Structure prediction request, 1452 residues.
Amino acid sequence: MSSEFGNILHISVFGQSHGRAVGVVMDGLPAGEEIDLEALQRFLDRRRPGTGPLSTARRETDVPEFLSGLEDGRTCGAPLCAVIPNADQRSGDYGELADKPRPGHADFTAWAKWGGRADMRGGGHFSGRLTAPLCVAGGIAKQLLARRGVFVGAHLAAVAGIPDAPFPLHPTAALFAEIAARPFPVLDEEAGERMRAAILAAKNDLDSVGGVVECAAIGLPPGLGDPMFGGVENRLAAALFGIPAVKGVEFGAGFGAAELRGSENNDPFRVEEGRIRAESNHAGGILGGITTGMPLVLRAAVKPTPSIGRAQRTVRLSRLEDTGLTIHGRHDPCVAHRAVPVAEAVTAAVLLDMLLEGNHGTF
Amino acid sequence: MSSEFGNILHISVFGQSHGRAVGVVMDGLPAGEEIDLEALQRFLDRRRPGTGPLSTARRETDVPEFLSGLEDGRTCGAPLCAVIPNADQRSGDYGELADKPRPGHADFTAWAKWGGRADMRGGGHFSGRLTAPLCVAGGIAKQLLARRGVFVGAHLAAVAGIPDAPFPLHPTAALFAEIAARPFPVLDEEAGERMRAAILAAKNDLDSVGGVVECAAIGLPPGLGDPMFGGVENRLAAALFGIPAVKGVEFGAGFGAAELRGSENNDPFRVEEGRIRAESNHAGGILGGITTGMPLVLRAAVKPTPSIGRAQRTVRLSRLEDTGLTIHGRHDPCVAHRAVPVAEAVTAAVLLDMLLEGNHGTF
Amino acid sequence: MSSEFGNILHISVFGQSHGRAVGVVMDGLPAGEEIDLEALQRFLDRRRPGTGPLSTARRETDVPEFLSGLEDGRTCGAPLCAVIPNADQRSGDYGELADKPRPGHADFTAWAKWGGRADMRGGGHFSGRLTAPLCVAGGIAKQLLARRGVFVGAHLAAVAGIPDAPFPLHPTAALFAEIAARPFPVLDEEAGERMRAAILAAKNDLDSVGGVVECAAIGLPPGLGDPMFGGVENRLAAALFGIPAVKGVEFGAGFGAAELRGSENNDPFRVEEGRIRAESNHAGGILGGITTGMPLVLRAAVKPTPSIGRAQRTVRLSRLEDTGLTIHGRHDPCVAHRAVPVAEAVTAAVLLDMLLEGNHGTF
Amino acid sequence: MSSEFGNILHISVFGQSHGRAVGVVMDGLPAGEEIDLEALQRFLDRRRPGTGPLSTARRETDVPEFLSGLEDGRTCGAPLCAVIPNADQRSGDYGELADKPRPGHADFTAWAKWGGRADMRGGGHFSGRLTAPLCVAGGIAKQLLARRGVFVGAHLAAVAGIPDAPFPLHPTAALFAEIAARPFPVLDEEAGERMRAAILAAKNDLDSVGGVVECAAIGLPPGLGDPMFGGVENRLAAALFGIPAVKGVEFGAGFGAAELRGSENNDPFRVEEGRIRAESNHAGGILGGITTGMPLVLRAAVKPTPSIGRAQRTVRLSRLEDTGLTIHGRHDPCVAHRAVPVAEAVTAAVLLDMLLEGNHGTF
Prediction:
């Protein structure tokens, strides 16, 4: 079992980059939920490769077809299956790669695992293409969450070491919508300009850059999550590491907290308008694995795209000898900005699952 | 369900800081495995608070009693249950805290979840005390792994921003043993001196510091783990966030990878002595969620101990009003060094589970 | 989460009777396995409604399309998704039923659960139609099992109280194949004649009959399964009750064992050709949840088709008042014979999952 | 993983018959629940071997010690661990059995699985002794259920083919309490007399008998459970087969339904006092895996105790040769009556888990 997560709401992703289709099954959705397909499409479009210089040449329309679970625009209790055909497959690009694992890709580990029997054309099941069905699931989850007052948003917190401004202490649904509408998902547009320049510079060097996605969720009730291994952090991290290229996940101050003193990192409590709030949010909305009611804030590190135009050293698997490799064809000089809606999608799916599961503290 | 993880090898932790005992059930251990109880005790002693100035005054002997699963020093196929009585409980320290959540602790979220019905004396089930049974499980897992050529070791990679040297590209079991035998678990003893000074300085300021634990595993076969959500990273992260105070987890270059270019971050492959190895290990031994056969390397960020002697702002839950709080009693100015064996324990338990599960690539 | 089972090999079924398609995702199949699509189709044809008098008029071709996981006729490590379009939907038949739950059907419970928001046309996700994708999964599992020396077969052990002969003590793969090739899946063709007569008699009475399916698996190694809740019986039963209309599951002598004495029910061991075998098989190949190496034998009770032509008493949900109901349209007077391959499918899927999981006794 | 079940409420059982203790961890209990320890003890006493002629000579006091999760008589949100020491161990009885698997016991399969490394003294982890901690968990679950209007009760439906009267269409909590208070748990005391006579007759013949336990739950809301593999039947069966000696599980009319016609088996609906009820309950309170609101009714077949005093044929494992075996020492001529509270316990634990999980139909 690999490509699945969730407890009450279980999500299974399937497909290979150059197979017939990619898709997703969502089992456990409540019934009667209207799905706004246009809003869903706008969400999907945010992760699609565009036409600009930052993106690959691959064109995907990414319009999901619903085979089950959605009737007359509403969920019907049965598992929902959405399929996105793979229109634009250029398997001819693959050839040589079957025998020469690309550094930084799953080619070698797939070979080790499946003894050369995997379909690794275009990255196969490890491809970023699989984030399309993930966004279908997450986009649907976002709609259900919004209906319950929970909003999830994200921005590109850094590219190539160039930081965006952080989320404010209390981000709003309006702010999330504003970032989502921008062509480049940053809070500080000037920082965004510099990020884009860094991406283009890498592209011109036949190289790539990585980045950091920061994601927040507001409107969660306090008391969600379980201690130790059933915490919100545990479940979110387990899912977020399923996004291709993610190599780190942190909550609140995260690794930065390791450099603070307790007096700096602790978030003092106070009463505001009859509710208990924290004055700061180094905890990222989670203490002991359980939500505080403050915004949930997490960051995911996205490594630089392993596919680069430069010559690289690798091995020829069939002969067990050293060789060189130059990857041709389309590839993104950066995938971090495209990972922004994907992080939202995964976060939303996990949070909806946890809300469906309930608090259970006192039942 | 909260305090459990694992698939073939399932580990359940129970107990509260000031209850009768803490303990663990390990279900799924192979039979006939000899457990070296002295070696296990030495491992447990590594996480115990010591007598030095860096530690709390609480004294625990932490000798596990085995109620089941271990007969004549060998596992017998049945679930293993180990219990550690809580000898030194000073519940008198608790009193005021029941109504005043300590900033940075789970007091508030436990109150939100269980409506004041939780046993939060000494942190209750959220206490670092729960890492004792976790180390029993992990210490046993380490012995089984070592018997199969897999070794897990860790060091304190940073305290208060002061870095230790990183693991070498190919750490050895001997190196792991050497660090484990040291009173302070660092590679660079001079850096260790400075870390200890920083901890003492925080203590003198009635404050605390955080740190980073770096953990490695060697001897894993390539091909372990599943794509997307069933990856080694997913499963390790899900468990590691169960260690109290962990707020970030990263693999290989982790968040640092987000600042590298692809040409820097990609690990070139080459053939060494008939095996495929990588020249560097920014991937931390994992590509696409699956092991490469290179050392698995991860880091966990440990926040500064939330219990500090300084006056802090909080609320009185019963009256919903602002108040002040000064925490008395024992507490560590730093828990990151004590988290070193705990990270090893959790990592070992997850890896043993995955090895038991097998590769399944070609079956 | 509802329509899923399996641990290493996870199977998700989706679709509604009158939706666009039904389908299945199999996550965790080993790679490189050749799938004989013709043999698979022959297996699927066994559960299809035929043209004879015993069956519904609904015509389905049931040819699965593989969207992922199968390339060039071989599994490729990625999740396999197979879809069967719903060609013949006559939703017009539904109408009145939306407000009048059919006795013995899930109409009422679906209404209670989903508040009228479920798509229950033709039984929706509860329809026997969902056994088509289940048979795709199970048919594939059967091929992988056969390649490893494990064979699964079933027959119709009873209809309307008329018993077939039981399996011999040591059924063979050849016997399974022979039954599978018959138009009516019984061991004793004379008994089969009487069963068919009973089905037709019920049909003529605008009524229906139930039956019992007996399923066996040979070639399993001893030692498979875990004690208590991880046993072979537990996992098979959990899946078998997912077949629509199954109301009982028993292993070996089953309920009959409750009427035997220990001296009759115990299976004496003896050595045969250097292997330990049992002289009888009241245990059905399982002791303590773990395989003995003798044939695994189970039976599932299939209730009479709830859709009958006779007038029945029910309620009008919208007005909460008593009413009458006469179901028109196509329906089988018996589904037990069609459940024979379905029971094989589910049994095979569970057993393959357990074989993939391994024994783990001594690792 | 073997000795565990449950999703939101997860139950792990540990211990061996002749080890230090048996016990259970319940993870996921709501907090603040008062546990009536006297009522719990009365429940535990129902499964304890008594002093009468129907029982073994083994004397167990079976008073659980609570190591965690229960403070001042109330659950506190943390996992609850209860331990029952094994006071009366006579391992001397074991000796010869280590090399001679007892027919009908798990001795052989444990040997096959763990290669002789299992602790099988007194049946080890497969012993009926493990039902003691199971009853601790189930007894607690029963108290929480009763507080929410759900009552679980059972009776001995048959012994050696002698039937008790069935439950009435609408059993009551008072009836459950009445049966529970009886020394022999039957509805029809005259039938109970005959059952006891049959047990004694078997005992005098150095033999044993089996039986059937019928269990019911009332007060469940309609709409609980999920379709296909997430149904109430699936989850109950998966757990019930974990009770030692259970070889069959059926719901409602069960295997009997296979002999009925649809017109007999279908339960007509009607409106009673503004609620939708069924006129009969062949469905056992479940349609499509989901509760109807009618009483849930199930039966479990308990095989005759495999330990009998008669000489039996078996093998000598070490020499792979045929041999004879006569089992000495204490053993029950029937365990079916002792399985009555165990079936209640398991049923209650599963139902509480499902109620905690919620309906999720419309959320």
Observations:
- The longest helix of chain B spans residues 339-357.
